[in-house]
Design goal:
The protein is of the alpha/beta class. It has one domain (2-227): Aldolase class I (TIM Barrel). It is built from 10 helices and 8 strands. The chain has helices at 14-22, 34-50, 65-75, 91-100, 120-125, 132-146, 155-165, 192-198, 207-210, 215-227; strands at residues 5-8, 29-33, 54-61, 82-86, 108-112, 150-152, 170-173, 202-205. The protein has an 8-stranded parallel beta barrel with strand order 1-2-3-4-5-6-7-8, surrounded by 5 helices. Helix 4 packs across helix 6. The protein is globular, with a radius of gyration of 17 Å.
């Protein structure tokens, strides 16, 4: 269960990210996003590799298909376990990303649906007429058609995705906030227990753990909450 919590290393400086890793010996999976990658990417990736940790390289690629294909190939040198692409880049872009990773069958490419900082009003302002939940469903359908089997979504959408696609897909959910932590800049959030019960496979958690006075204690509290959850049994709908 320890590798089901992905620790987000969202820090300005390498020393802070390194300290977070060292203060969380039980954690197995860490996320390096754009902020950390651009500041100290190779240093923190080397540290994670040395310590035998799993890497979620969260760069959220979105560009023309050939550019994303090249970006995925360039990322393989870091030996990530998870890598992200934006599903709004389109079906052909997703296909090219998967083709570029064919030499790494153990790499999971995740399709990003709708960022957890966005709500219905935000999508409407961008000219997207469907509400968040329907948009997420449509984007997952696009990803599945392209051959993708893993997605990033808010825990608020996981139950619906499970009922439509069953347990055949992997769902990674940010926007996780224990009741004892602040909401931060996330709009669509769940507690760890509710997220697992709704069907999340992996929980991405940053500040509630990394900014806690005792990160190791916060990690264990969340782990116990997850272990006490009872995931629902979902039967895939006939589509």
């Amino acid at each position: 269960m320890t590798d089901k919590i992905i620790i987000a290393l969202d820090f300005d400086h390498y020393s802070s990210a390194r300290e977070a890793v060292e203060r969380l010996p039980e954690a197995r999976f860490f996320k390096v996003g754009l902020q950390g990658y651009l500041q100290y990417g190779e240093s923190i990736i080397d540290l994670l590799r040395e310590k035998g940790k799993r890497l979620f390289l969260d760069l959220k690629f979105k560009d023309i298909p050939n550019t994303v294909s090249g970006a995925v190939r360039s990322s393989l040198k870091y030996e990530p376990d998870f890598l992200t692409v934006h599903l709004t880049g389109g079906e052909e872009m997703v296909r090219k990303a998967l083709e570029a990773a064919v030499e790494r069958p153990d790499l999971t490419i995740l399709g990003v649906t709708v960022l957890t900082s966005l709500g219905n009003a935000d999508l409407l302002a961008m000219g997207m007429l469907l509400p968040v939940a329907d948009t997420v469903l449509k984007l997952c359908e696009l990803g599945l058609k392209a051959g993708l089997r893993a997605f990033v979504c808010s825990p608020l959408e996981t139950e619906r995705l499970r009922r439509n696609f069953g347990r055949d897909i992997i769902l990674v959910t940010p926007g996780i906030r224990p009741q004892w932590s602040e909401k931060g800049d996330q709009t669509r959030v769940f507690t760890p227990r509710l997220a697992v019960e709704a069907g999340s496979d992996y929980l991405v958690i940053g500040r509630p753990i990394t900014h806690h006075q005792r990160p190791d204690e916060a990690f264990r509290l969340i782990l116990r909450e997850m272990e006490g959850a009872t995931p629902a049994v979902f039967e895939k709908k006939n589509r």
